[in-house]
Specification:
single chain; 71 residues; 32% helix; 2 helices; three-stranded antiparallel β-sheet
């Protein structure tokens, strides 16, 4: 849904998944943006916000580093 050319609304994701609005927003921010590091574009059209994935991954590349010292 997020990869479709027209994008998708939160209401459409809610209907498809059965999730509540706050869960969909958390998924978009936590999983799509932070975990998968995908660039998510949002535009307001006709009073509704439309979300879609644009381009590829963003952010740092390479392995993740922890702040803990190695044992």
């Amino acid at each position: 849904m997020l990869q479709s050319p027209g994008g998708v609304t939160i209401a459409a994701i809610m209907k498809a998944t059965g999730w509540q609005q706050h869960s969909v927003r958390g998924f978009l921010a936590g999983v799509v943006r932070k975990r998968l590091k995908l660039k998510l574009d949002s535009k307001k059209a006709d009073g509704n916000r439309i979300y879609k994935i644009v381009g590829g991954k963003i952010g740092k590349s390479g392995p993740r580093r922890t702040k803990r010292p190695s044992a």
